[in-house]
Design goal:
Belongs to the UPF0324 family. Its main location: membrane. Keywords: Cell membrane, Membrane, Transmembrane, Transmembrane helix. It is a multi-pass membrane protein. The protein is mainly alpha-helical and 359 residues long. The chain has one domain. 80% of the residues lie in helices and 0% in strands. It contains 17 helices and no strands. It is globular. The termini are far apart.
């Protein structure tokens, strides 16, 4: 009798084990496949963003900007399918970090040296002053702290790329990211058209104008468009100044991560906070140093540059797919006023330094 019970018991365990293994295999298959619908959707939006840049008059806009606009339009017109969510989140989190790390291969320490000591000082001072001013004014206007932080980062460093990098430690809502990207894109685009009219009026030579534009206009593409209109020398110096400014993204994100960790610890009455360390920023720094000492072939660097832009564009497109126009409208006009004030501040502050210091 005991033997019979043992046989039935073993057969029962065997059936349970088989069911468990079947369920486990199915779950693994589902998890492995679940990101693909979202990646396909994000990839389609990314392809459309790059294609749109072939349209006359649109080439001055970064594919990052076009992707988030297309993603938002799709989400608000048709709704993002639930089965695409895993891939959308994967793009927003994993692909974003990989893209930021690879961005380091487009920068070198030598670019900073080419700007000169006075140029670096102007760029750094403008960045810090603008970030602090924007945070302060955001409090005065009653703008949410996280949104103000994103606008401050986007205005003071490098537009949309800085916004999404900063959000890895700020952890704002997707609508905040979209609003901040829209703000820095709007006022950076205005600057792109206005700045070329001003060098002669302000008495700026090609080098001074390039430094001013590189230190204050938000996106790299906007700086290129604004400075090369004033000649090759202004364009090259403006691009180098802007890339030097981009290199300051790493210390800013690390600093904000440290501040966020301290803030979370204080909120938990001294308990250990679980704010993630932005280790990917260290990867960005490592690749920048690697690119500074290793002579990477131009074709390879260009290929990685394209891959970097594709990954960051996918991340912005994914954020658009998570953004509601209704929630954006609920933010009101105060963040827009904050972004306008921040843009005017960095333009005036950096211009004052360029005019007063030998560059």
């Amino acid at each position: 009798m005991a033997n019979i019970e043992t046989v039935f018991h073993d057969e029962g365990d065997l059936r349970k084990r088989r069911r468990f293994h079947r369920l486990h295999r199915a779950l693994r298959h589902r998890v492995g496949q679940s990101i693909w619908p979202g990646l396909f959707l994000v990839g389609t939006i990314t392809g459309a963003a790059f294609a749109l840049r072939e349209v006359p008059g649109v080439a001055t806009f970064s594919p990052l900007i076009l992707a988030i606009v297309l993603g938002m339009a799709f989400h608000n017109l048709f709704g993002t399918p639930s089965r695409a969510r895993e891939g959308v989140l994967f793009s927003m989190r994993k692909l974003l970090r990989i893209g930021i790390v690879l961005l380091g291969l487009q920068l070198t320490v030598g670019q900073v040296a080419a700007v000169g000591g006075a140029g670096v000082a102007i760029i750094a001072a403008s960045l810090v002053a603008t970030f602090v001013f924007t945070k302060w004014l955001g409090r005065m206007l009653g703008v949410e702290r996280k949104l103000a932080e994103l606008i401050a980062a986007g205005t003071s460093i490098c537009g949309a790329s800085a916004v999404i990098a900063t959000n890895t430690v700020t952890n704002a809502h997707d609508e905040d990211v979209a609003y901040a990207v829209a703000c820095v894109t709007l006022f950076g685009s205005i600057a792109m058209f206005v700045y070329p009219m001003l060098p002669a009026m302000l008495g700026l030579g090609p080098q001074g104008y390039g430094l001013w534009a590189g230190a204050s206009i938000h996106e790299i593409a906007q700086v290129v468009a604004a400075t090369f209109q004033s000649g090759q020398q202004a364009g090259e110096y403006g691009t180098i100044a802007k890339l030097s400014r981009v290199m300051m993204l790493a210390p800013l994100v690390l600093t904000l991560g440290f501040v966020a960790s301290r803030r979370a610890s204080a909120a938990e009455d001294g308990a250990r906070a679980s704010v993630p360390m932005p280790w990917f920023v260290l990867g960005f720094v490592a690749l920048t140093l690697f690119n500074s000492v290793v002579d990477i072939p131009a074709e390879v660097r260009s290929g990685f540059g394209t891959l970097t832009m594709v990954l960051l564009t996918m991340a912005l497109g994914a954020m658009g797919l998570e953004t509601s126009f209704r929630k954006l409208a609920a933010k009101g006009l105060r963040p827009l006023a904050l972004a306008a004030s921040a843009s005017l501040f960095i333009a005036a502050f950096s211009l004052g330094l360029v005019l007063s210091l030998p560059v």
